[in-house]
Design the sequence.
């Protein structure tokens, strides 16, 4: 019978012997495990380094935005009178402000009353014109288009008319007021004297200005009379706000006064006649200082992380996980290389971060002199912005820097051979007819900037100025245009009209048809498409789009006017934050330093896994061989032991016989 338990036959500790032999054989497996542990530690270290780089990059986001450095704040002496906000074009200054009048919106009410809000008013359409009154005469506001609201059978009641007007969202609100017995419709425009209302009605009953019946009861022409176009009553007069800034009187249609002080918006709350308050505009350095301080802190945190990961402690004989690691060394060198290199500022001079109080210490960290930074911001905030961000400074005031790309090189960019952008226009060839008749010459089919629509002009007799206002208001009031940001401007020269698109460039065009086209612009009218701006940047032809010109290296500028030809230079800089952001983005990209290193470590771990599998199979085979050999030894010893026992017994028996 075979021995089933190793060592029973020979009294040898076969399991112990095999275990010790396999312990020696398994040393390569232990080495593989130790290597994997070290690789996993590297992966963790790369993760920490990646996190530190990401946090540092986050501190750069505000620094690459020039407005962080040029921000201003406004302080108002009496904030109950007004508040003030600033934009990037404001400048430090102080002003005396007196609010003499607040703006208000015009309100109109119906003369007729309705016992119930469901009482029928009528059907047709309401056309709202915005403008000003003077001696009862109405002058349209050419910056606002006329708006038409259709009142169908589903909205022919007092409540229905209200809903139709409100649903149209045309800048007129409608409400119903009940005096305890009857109901009246109240219409309110937006604030401002130039937003007073004139309401023309196209009544389904065929009579458009009477007060007896139908939708014409809502007609309102300040030049008319009750029963003949002036069928509503004004309850609140439209007014502009009036504010005096440093002795100069400014009118505004709203209580938000923009541009009275350049770059400042005044929000009026109440009048202070005879008791002017002060509005002070000062440089807001706090956000910039905070951003720079955070940049210094996050860089030092990154430097600390790198130091910990690459250090060697001579006392404990413990090395950082990334000691001698090429990726970590590369990151350190590249970061310090950017910060230690001088750059060109917006004035073309060489400068460094130390000029604003940021400097390296002996231990490799950065330190910030807040006083020096604040002084630099107060002296020239734009120059400080150029020290951090990518920024262009044109020599020509009618050129604006818009953007750049990573291919845009720092330095002076010459702007030459400029041809300004133009607008698409339609020039009339004959004096406009001043009488508009229904179905005869009241329809215009227009295409402006590639968008087509149709408008119908109000029937009647006009002067040249009132007809021009009617046409421009109707065109600019069409939703197909306003929703697309399209508008036109009409001009009059000796009774001949010209229509110009408000857009610049090759996408700007105007064409017209319909039965009213010949009457307004003549048979020989001509359309001229707009042209994009053209010119060269650094001797290379730029790509024009409207007023925007983009160079072959990605520098984009806007040329809003001025003379053709040479227009000076745009001095372009790439600041430290911009360069560091590009550097860190590359390091953190899928093909960057961190990813390449982690991919290498992961590949090594995968290779170790394959080696471990092969070694484990080999060890299984070796152990089986050892056990087979010792089993045979155990069997042989067992047999020899049995023979020895037999012989001993036989010799003992012979000895007894001899005795």
Sequence:
């Amino acid at each position: 019978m075979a021995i089933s338990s190793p060592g029973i036959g020979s009294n040898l500790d076969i399991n112990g012997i095999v275990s010790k032999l396999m312990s020696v054989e398994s040393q390569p497996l232990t080495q593989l495990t130790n290597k994997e542990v070290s690789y996993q530690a590297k992966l963790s270290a790369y993760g920490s380094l990646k996190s530190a780089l990401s946090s540092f990059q986050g501190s750069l986001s505000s620094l690459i935005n020039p407005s962080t450095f040029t921000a201003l704040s406004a302080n108002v002496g009496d904030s109950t009178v007004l508040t003030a906000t600033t934009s990037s074009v404001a400048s430090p200054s102080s002003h005396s402000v007196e609010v003499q009048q607040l703006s208000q919106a015009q309100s109109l009410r119906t003369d007729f009353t309705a016992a119930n809000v469901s009482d029928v008013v009528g059907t047709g359409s309401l056309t709202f014109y915005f403008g000003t009154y003077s001696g009862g005469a109405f002058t349209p506001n050419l910056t606002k288009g006329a708006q038409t609201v259709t009142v169908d059978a589903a909205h022919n009641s007092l409540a229905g008319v209200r809903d139709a007007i409100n649903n149209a969202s045309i800048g007129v609100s409608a409400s119903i007021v009940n005096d305890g017995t009857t109901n009246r419709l109240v219409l309110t425009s937006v604030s401002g004297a130039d937003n007073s209302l004139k309401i023309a009605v196209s009544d389904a009953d065929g009579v458009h200005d009477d007060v007896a019946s139908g939708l014409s009861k809502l007609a309102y022409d300040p030049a008319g009379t009750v029963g003949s176009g002036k069928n509503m009553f004004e309850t609140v007069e439209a007014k502009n706000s009036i504010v005096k800034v440093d002795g100069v009187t400014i009118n505004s249609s709203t209580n938000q006064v923009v541009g009275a002080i350049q770059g400042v918006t005044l929000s009026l709350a109440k009048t202070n006649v005879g008791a002017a308050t002060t509005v002070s505009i000062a440089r807001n350095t706090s956000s910039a200082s905070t951003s720079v301080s955070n940049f210094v802190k996050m860089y030092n945190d990154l430097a600390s992380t790198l130091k910990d990961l690459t250090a060697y402690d001579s006392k404990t004989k413990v090395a950082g996980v990334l000691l001698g690691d090429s990726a970590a060394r590369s990151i350190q060198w590249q970061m310090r290389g950017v910060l230690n290199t001088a750059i060109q500022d917006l004035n073309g001079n060489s400068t460094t971060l130390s000029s604003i109080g940021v400097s390296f210490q002996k231990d490799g960290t950065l330190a910030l002199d807040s006083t020096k930074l604040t002084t630099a911001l107060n002296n020239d905030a734009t120059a400080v912005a150029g020290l951090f961000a990518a920024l262009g400074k044109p020599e020509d005031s009618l050129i604006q820097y818009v953007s750049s790309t990573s291919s845009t090189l720092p330095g002076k960019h010459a702007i030459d051979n400029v041809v300004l952008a133009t607008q698409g226009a339609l020039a009339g060839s004959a004096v406009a007819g001043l009488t508009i008749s229904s179905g005869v010459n009241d329809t215009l089919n227009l295409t402006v900037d590639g968008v087509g629509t149709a408008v119908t002009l109000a029937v009647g007799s006009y002067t040249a100025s009132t007809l021009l206002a009617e046409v421009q208001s109707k065109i600019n009031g069409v939703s197909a245009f306003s929703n697309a940001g399209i508008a036109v401007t009409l001009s009059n020269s000796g009774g001949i009209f010209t229509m110009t698109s408000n857009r610049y460039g090759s996408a700007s065009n105007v064409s017209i048809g319909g039965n009213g086209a010949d009457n307004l612009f003549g048979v020989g009218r001509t359309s001229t498409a707009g042209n994009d701006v053209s010119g060269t940047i650094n001797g290379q032809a730029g790509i024009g789009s409207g007023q925007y010109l983009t160079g072959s290296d990605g520098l984009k500028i806007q040329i809003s006017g001025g003379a053709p030809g040479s227009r000076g230079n745009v001095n372009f800089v790439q600041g430290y934050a911009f360069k560091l952001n590009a550097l860190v983005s590359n390091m953190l990209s899928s093909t960057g330093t961190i990813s390449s290193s982690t991919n290498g470590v992961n590949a090594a771990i995968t290779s170790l896994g394959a080696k471990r599998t092969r070694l484990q199979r080999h060890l299984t085979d070796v152990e089986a061989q050892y056990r087979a050999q010792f089993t045979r030894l155990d069997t042989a010893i067992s047999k020899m032991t049995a023979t020895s026992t037999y012989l001993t017994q036989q010799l003992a028996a012979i000895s007894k016989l001899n005795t």
